[in-house]
Amino acid sequence: MDYIERELDWRRLRAASRYLTQNPPVHLLVKWFMGLKTEDLQAATTPADEATRRSNFLEAFRSAGGLLS
Fold it and tell me: What's the superkingdom here (predicted)?
């Protein structure tokens, strides 16, 4: 925390805020595109096995307009 307070002045904070406003992180873009809300993500549970996670991802991708067959 001391490093951040020492190195991040208001000018740099404003520049970072402008940049992130114009170039949001990919995970936020995907969340917006999929129409997900924070409450939806908190309520979701992640399956333990990889096969189920992969299947769920592919199903979500197809339902969002993905072109997988």
Answer: Bacteria
What is the distance between the alpha carbons of residues 31 and 26, in angstroms, rounded to a whole number?
Answer: 9
Distance from the Cα of residue 61 to its chain's centroid: 15
Rounded to two decimals, what is the model's pTM?
0.39
pLDDT band at residue 39 using 50, 70 and 90 as cut-offs? low
Q: What is the pLDDT of residues 5-19, one digit of tens each?
A: 788 888 888 888 888
Kindly give, in sequence order, each residue whose CB lies less than 8 Å from that of residue 41, ignoring residues fewer than 6 positions away. 31
